[in-house]
Write a structure and sequence with these properties.
15 strands; Alpha-Beta Plaits; 8 helices; globular; alpha/beta; Rossmann fold; seven-stranded mixed beta sheet; homotetramer
């Protein structure tokens, strides 16, 4: 029997205050006719009233995705899970009440703006997660991090192989058992080996409107091309550099007076905003990964 | 037994191509526990598969609103209606397949920009409705309207009482039996009497970000106040001038170089865009009116 | 001695009403110390009062660009030109009062939305130019164009070589001596030969946020990549496909519910808006081309 | 003889790195013919080369405003000032090189989001000013402020008269001799008496798109009205509550799912962003106050 708790979910654009008896249910399975009716009937039998239900069918992949906010006087979570498992197509992924507070590890290099946004929200408990540690391949952000009483690990990359560096990084991070690893302007490319340890659990902020300006020096590339907008992209990290599923993208105007450094400065604001929005969506379990795309129930 | 037809729905941001056997269902009723399950079960019994379902509960008013896109091999529309009517709370409003092409009458004064946007979409069949007539209290837009083979009615307001003017306008418009009356920069205030003949069926574009700058000369007011954004608001017209349920609002930046006439010119672009978006939402049956607010399932 | 005239300049965001004696001066030259003082002194000597002056130095190219709106009781335009020519560095480009109404030729294929926006503004004299003709490689938009009393030329590409096609197109267009050629969703790639006949005079609307999704099928590419924004780019056409100087770019949000056709529909709105803005800037002589970039004095 | 220094100016959208010999000049005076020529000539005589010059004439008030970035090998600042004073119309306001780092005092109540943004930028020296103190009418933000080694003054309002409260506040703040007082969600209305001590030096963030929803509870007002956008306004504080000259405004979309608390949460992001942008503009001396409006040279 589950113990109910009050949960407050916060999103860039919305907030849900869950009462004592609210339940969040996430379902992914092969699509078939009548799934919504089937699921809602089952919930009704457990006296769960639907507050908000979102669903999407990826027709190419024939997959059904749903996120259901419901409330009810009390029910047996295990029984509901088992019934859903039996009723839904094989290999359905079902998650009931995943909203216990997540833990995140933040990787950084030298730039503070994304890290600061995360640490401030953490200290005021509006992040929707707990920052368990910050690790950097430079020591530059140690004192800032420690102002917030968060442990900082300096893992120098300069004196060791990529494999050694990542092994050390991995150990430092894993000690905290984070649910997500956030690359908050972490400027080292991670190996497939590292990435594969955290499938769909590493979130990166890329300083361009992907797929424009993939790779190094996107602001220089943007300057050379004479674009009139610059952007930022938050995405899950996969083995293909800069090719993982996109979560959030935004752009802001620039003009001929912007040199590379002006673009870098303007870009920081949009990077911060995009990563912040992406974290809120992910931490509220609003983001499903479907191949190299995301489905987001805002 | 309903005759199926292919329908194409268009929205600012999305398009749905309905296959032969698609069905749109709109429901508004008093809220109660289990409504979603109840409705989806009923649909399942008629072999209607849910493609997209949106619902919202206005907790203050205790009202439930839902818009359901479904598909199935064929069903008896009258039987489904009756079953829903019986199952749902008293005074439920149910609409099945309201999407036959609507007819709209457009009222204008002298400004062409909103009218032109509507007429161009009409001639290329992308409006989601048919413009049946244009009526103006000036004759200025007659020749433009007639380029599109749409009848234009000039109803001069200068030589008659408001009551006479509105009577004449009403007669001209009613002859076409429009589903909606669109005020495309129509600069006469309509009486309660006129408005009450078309409840939630008159859509106006107001040249400000309401409720700022209610009433006459909003751009002058905006200029005097030194605002850094101007906006436009599309809303349903009610007896309270500028107080009807808002459908769409947008703003654009202005600066100290803008005088009143520059604001007017910049404003036209946003007025056109806002009215266009509002019409698309309304004509696709995505907008529910709830008191002085709208619920919009985009 | 110049004959003064009243000119009204309109821009997306601003309007200038030139009084009888206003003068617009455009200058491009090698940069050197004291240019602004030198130019403004010269103007003062001709009793030209500066209303608005904008200048920019491209430091990489060591080029100075300036746009000056001034007014005065009357002056000898040729004398001013000669004095500026003598005072400024060699090969300075000077243009005094270039604002006589430009003529534009519009090339189209099958899509109406950009063409319609241009023709409507043309008929109400708010384009800042005169549309002299429309030419299409399909006949689809003839009747629409002719509603506006603009000649339409159908130049079929299917039965001839690219060279023959372009020769015919060129002849049709050149008969009207246009100042600019606008590609309003013209879906044929023009040869270097054709392009070089209109240096910095061909304006294209590209249906993506360049440089993302260069080439064919940008919306399909965007869909496959799972982007969360789509965009449009107006640019001058050069020999490098999709690589010419960018004038205006904008983006709008999309989400997982957008298939390719929904992106196409949403994209049309942004394409129309971006091309319209670009034309306004160019037609008001606010855009300077500097290498593969633009300098825009809004 | 002035001592040159390297200055880095940062703005939301642009950055200027001043070389050793750069000079910023601000001028406000009655308008007359030939001012730009007159000023630029004077600068040329001092070997000051104009990098960027912006000017605006408020025709209603017949006032000229100019901001000039220039560079040169060295000049006598006092002589230039005297020459400008003599050449320009009476009562001209002239400021040469006002860019020494400003000091700001921040007033808060309980909300952290605007304060945090300011303190983070302060600690990384990207604010363009130094935060000298934070004062609050609650003690809630003391520990957060002290993480950044900034003195926090708790001035309780509950046990004293408005006059006493403001006297105490004034004394605490004045001890630091701030150039600007920033109301970062300070929820007490300041008396005319207090305001008049800091003319055009108090910057407030108002949690609505002024002039909509003036006064208390703007988000509740916005919710009741059913608006589709909410906004924030940064403005200078004058004796008329919420009527001071506006510096920056932005809006973000909301919909029917937003209750008052969701609007409050979404609003915080826009409040933070708007205040941050306004501070950057003011601290770079880009903002001139003209009556109840601002002129901003971005």
């Amino acid at each position: 029997m589950k113990t109910f708790s009050t949960r407050v979910l916060k999103c860039g654009h919305s907030l849900y205050i869950y009462s004592m008896n609210s339940t969040l249910i996430l379902i992914t399975c092969t699509d078939k006719v009548g799934l919504v009716a089937l699921i809602t009937q089952l919930l009704a039998r457990h006296n769960l009233n639907i507050i908000a239900m979102r669903e999407f069918v990826d027709e190419g992949a024939n997959r059904f995705f749903s996120r259901i906010e419901s409330s009810g006087p009390g029910f047996d979570q295990q029984v509901l899970y088992d019934e859903l498992k039996q009723a839904l197509p094989e290999k359905a992924e079902i998650s009931i009440n995943p909203l216990t507070e997540k833990r995140i590890a933040v990787l950084v290099t030298k730039e503070y703006h994304c890290l600061a946004d995360i640490l401030v929200r953490d200290v005021f408990h509006t992040l929707g997660a707990k920052v368990c540690c910050v690790a950097g391949n430079y020591d530059a952000l140690r004192s800032f991090t420690e102002r917030f009483d968060i442990p900082f690990h300096f893992i120098d990359h300069s004196d060791k192989s990529k494999q050694e560096f990542e092994q050390e990084l991995s150990e430092a991070v894993n000690a905290y058992q984070p649910d997500y690893v956030v690359l908050a302007k972490f400027m080292r490319i991670l190996s497939s080996d590292f990435v594969s340890r955290y499938p769909n659990k590493i979130i990166n902020i890329h300083h361009s409107f992907l797929p424009a300006f993939i790779g190094a020096g996107p602001y220089r590339q943007a300057f050379e091309r004479g674009v009139k907008l610059i952007g930022a992209t938050a995405h899950f990290v996969t083995n293909d550099l800069d090719e993982g599923p996109i979560i959030v993208q935004q752009t802001i105007p620039v003009n001929h007076t912007f040199g590379v450094s002006e673009m870098v400065i303007a870009g920081k604001e949009i990077e911060k905003s995009v990563l912040s929005k992406a974290l809120q969506l992910v931490l509220q379990d609003r983001v499903f990964v479907a191949g190299n795309k995301t489905i987001i129930f805002e």
